[in-house]
Design a protein that fits this description.
- The structure holds two protein chains of two kinds.
- Chain A is of the alpha/beta class.
- Chain A has helices at residues 10-18, 22-28, 38-48, 71-84, 91-103, 112-120, 128-137, 143-155, 164-173, and strands at 5-8, 33-37, 63-66, 106-108, 124-126.
- Chain A has nine helices and five strands, in the order βααβαβααβαβααα.
- A five-stranded parallel sheet of chain A has the order 3-2-1-4-5.
- In chain A, α6 (112-120) links the parallel β4 (106-108) and β5.
- The relative contact order of chain B is 0.10.
- Helix content of chain B is 55%, strand content 6%.
- Chain B has helices spanning 2-20, 25-32, 36-43, 51-61, 65-69, 89-108, 131-143, 155-160, 197-212, 216-221, 225-240, 243-256, 259-269, 274-283, 289-296, 302-307, 323-334, 340-346, 364-371, and strands spanning 76-80, 164-169, 178-183, 186-192.
- The chains are: A alpha/beta, B alpha+beta.
- The interface between A and B is large, with 47 and 45 residues.
C-alpha cells in the first residue's frame, strides 16, 4: 500500500488481534501512518479484560494513539454519535470517523452503518478485506494465506461479507485483485 | 476567541443538565469519576473535556452527546405549564429537545417525512371563544379520522395520522404538562407521563392544536401567548368532548341513570378527567351550575367507575414512543442507516437489542461502490 494515513476503528483490530494476525496486519499497512483515537484505545482496553490478545495491540510499534480534544472534533464526534452511538456504546466508530474526516485520514472500518454514514460525509474508507486484497496485489500475502486469514477472522466474529472460500471470487469480481 | 465562547456554552449546557437532574457538582463528579473542582471548571468553560469525558457526562446526565456541544435542532413552540404551579421547565425543554434530535436523525436518513395535514387549519381567531375552537375541533376530528360524535380513543395513534408524533415520558411532578416542537415540518409532542391520564390526553389534544394551526397562530395572536394557550385548551376540550357526541350519549344515559352515574360513564367512555367532563356538560347546558358544583365536590373513585360498569383505560403511559417513530427507527436500522445501539436509545429501551429484526443482506455487488 502506498504511504498514507489510516485511522483504525476498534473492531477490525479486535478480531485481527484475536485471530493472532497482528503481525500480518503490520505488514499489510507497512509504510502508513496508523493511528487509533483515545476512544478506540479505551474500547480495546475494556475488551482486553475478556480477550487478553487485545493487549498486544498497544505494543505494536506501527500504531500510535491520537487525542483530539478540540471543539471542532467534539462537534463532529457528537454528530457521528447521533447516528451511530447509543449512550456509551459504539464510541470508537464515531471517534474514528470524526478524526478521519477532520484530519483527512482514511478510516479503516467494517461496520455497515458506520461506513455508510462516513461515505455520505465524504470520508475515505477502507476495511479489513480491502487491506488483505491490497496485500495480495503487493505480494505481501499469498492468496492461499489470505483465504486462511479470512476464515480465521470469521471464526473470531468478524462481520465480513464472505468467508474464505468465497473471498477470492468476490475480490476478483470486485476488481480488487487487479 | 470563538472556541472560548463555545467552551463556555458547553459548560453552561452541562450545568443546566446537571441541575435538571437534581444533581450537585459533587454528585456529578462522583458519578463521572472526576474531582468536584474539575466539574466547577468545566461548567464555566475553563477546563476542556475530551471525547471520553463527554461520553461519561452525557451518560450520567441522561442526554445525547450533541445536546452538550450544540444548540437544539429546533425551537420549542409551546410549553404547557403545570397546573400545580411548581415549574421545572428545564426538564420539559430537555425532553422535547432530545426527542427532536432523534426525529432529526430519522429525517436526515429519510426514514421520516412531513405530513401535509400540518398547518392545514384556519387559526382560531381570538375573541371567538367558543365558536372558533369548537369549529376547529370538528375539522381536526375529521383530519384524524374520527366522526363527529365518537369518543377519540388511542389519541396518540390518531394524531399520527395528521403527522404529529406523541411521546409520553416521566418528567416529574414539577414539570410542565407537555410541549410541542417542529422538525422540518414534522410535529412532535412530549406529554408528561406523571400527570393524570385524562390530563395527558387533554394535553396531547392541546399540542395537536399547535401542530394543526401551524405558524399562523403566532402571527394572528402576536405575543399574547396566554390567549393562544386558552384557545387551544378550549380546542382540546371540544376535540375530546364533542357537543353532538355528548348530547346524544347524555340523553341515552339519563334514561337509565342518575346524573352522577351518567357523568361517570361519560368521563370513562370519552377518557377525560371528571372535571373536564363536568365542564363540558355544563357548557352544553346538560347540567345546571348548581349540579356541576355538587358533582365537582365528590370525585368518583375507582369503585364508583366499576359500579357503573366502566373502566378507566389509561392512555399515554410513560414511556410511550410514537409508533411511527419506532417503525422508522427500526427501518433505518434494517437498512444500515443507524446503529443497533442508536435504535435502542431512540426507543427508550422499549425494545431489546436481541429483538431487532435481521438486517437487509447487502448483495456483494452493492459493496463495489464503497470499496473503491
Amino acid at each position: 500500500m502506498n504511504a498514507g494515513r489510516l485511522a483504525f476503528d476498534s473492531s477490525p483490530l479486535n478480531y485481527i488481534a484475536r485471530a493472532g494476525q497482528l503481525s500480518l496486519l503490520g505488514k499489510l499497512v507497512a509504510g502508513n501512518d496508523c493511528v487509533i483515537t483515545r476512544a478506540v484505545e479505551d474500547e480495546l482496553l475494556r475488551g482486553a479484560s475478556k480477550y487478553a490478545q487485545l493487549y498486544q495491540i498497544s505494543t505494536q510499534e506501527w500504531i500510535r494513539v491520537v487525542d483530539d480534544s478540540s471543539m471542532t472534533f467534539l462537534e463532529l464526534f457528537s454528530e457521528y454519535h447521533a447516528r451511530l452511538g447509543g449512550g456509551g456504546h459504539n464510541i470508537g466508530e464515531s471517534a474514528t470517523l470524526a478524526y478521519a474526516e477532520l484530519h483527512g485520514l482514511t478510516a479503516c472500518i467494517d461496520d455497515r452503518s458506520a461506513r455508510r454514514h462516513g461515505q455520505e460525509r465524504g470520508v475515505k474508507l477502507t476495511g479489513t478485506l480491502e487491506l488483505v486484497c491490497q496485500g495480495i496485489r503487493a505480494n505481501v500475502v499469498a492468496e492461499a494465506e489470505a483465504v486462511r486469514v479470512v476464515d480465521l477472522l470469521r471464526d473470531h466474529e468478524a462481520f465480513l461479507p464472505c468467508d474464505g472460500s468465497a473471498f477470492l471470487d468476490w475480490a476478483r469480481s470486485e476488481g480488487l485483485l487487479s | 476567541m470563538a472556541d472560548e465562547q463555545a467552551w463556555i456554552e458547553v459548560g453552561a449546557r452541562i450545568a443546566a443538565s446537571r441541575r435538571a437532574r437534581g444533581l450537585s457538582q459533587e454528585d456529578l463528579a462522583g458519578k463521572v469519576g472526576l474531582e468536584r473542582t474539575a466539574i466547577t471548571k468545566i461548567e464555566v468553560g475553563r477546563r476542556h473535556v475530551n471525547s471520553l469525558e463527554l461520553v461519561r457526562l452525557a451518560e450520567v446526565l441522561g442526554r445525547p452527546l450533541q445536546s452538550l456541544v450544540s444548540d437544539p435542532p429546533t425551537s420549542i413552540v409551546s410549553r404547557r405549564a403545570a397546573a400545580s404551579g411548581g415549574r421545572d421547565d428545564q426538564a420539559t425543554d430537555f425532553a422535547i429537545e432530545d426527542v427532536a434530535r432523534d426525529l432529526q436523525v430519522l429525517v436526515d436518513v429519510r426514514a421520516l417525512s412531513a405530513n401535509p395535514a400540518k398547518g392545514s387549519l384556519r387559526p382560531i381567531v381570538p375573541g371567538e371563544e367558543g365558536w372558533g375552537p369548537e369549529e376547529a375541533a370538528a375539522k381536526a376530528r375529521s383530519l384524524i379520522g374520527v366522526d363527529a360524535k365518537s369518543p377519540v380513543h388511542h389519541l396518540a395513534s390518531k394524531v399520527e395520522r395528521a403527522g404529529l408524533f406523541a411521546y409520553s415520558l416521566a418528567l416529574g411532578n414539577a414539570s410542565s404538562d407537555g410541549s410541542y416542537a417542529e422538525i422540518d415540518g414534522i410535529g412532535v409532542a412530549v406529554v408528561n407521563g406523571e400527570i393524570d391520564p385524562g390530563r395527558r390526553r387533554l394535553t396531547l389534544a392541546h399540542e395537536l392544536g399547535h401542530h394543526l394551526f401551524g405558524d399562523a397562530y403566532s402571527v394572528d395572536w402576536g405575543t399574547d401567548t396566554s390567549t393562544t394557550e386558552r384557545a387551544l385548551d378550549a380546542f382540546a376540550g371540544f376535540l375530546l368532548l364533542p357537543r353532538a357526541g355528548l348530547d346524544d350519549r347524555w340523553e341515552e344515559l339519563r334514561a337509565d341513570y342518575a346524573a352522577r352515574q351518567s357523568a361517570i360513564i361519560i368521563s370513562a367512555e370519552f377518557r377525560v378527567s371528571w372535571g373536564a367532563a363536568l365542564r363540558h356538560l355544563r357548557y352544553y347546558d346538560r347540567i345546571t351550575r348548581d349540579e356541576k358544583t355538587l358533582l365537582e365536590s365528590r370525585s368518583p373513585t375507582r369503585a364508583d367507575y366499576l359500579e357503573c360498569g366502566v373502566r378507566i383505560y389509561e392512555e399515554l403511559q410513560s414511556p410511550y414512543i410514537p409508533t411511527g417513530v419506532a417503525a422508522a427507527a427500526i427501518r433505518a436500522y434494517r437498512s444500515h442507516r443507524i446503529s443497533a445501539e442508536r435504535v435502542i436509545t431512540m426507543l427508550r429501551g422499549q425494545v431489546h437489542i436481541d429483538e431487532l429484526p435481521a438486517r437487509d443482506e447487502i448483495p456483494l455487488e452493492s459493496l463495489r461502490g464503497d470499496l473503491q
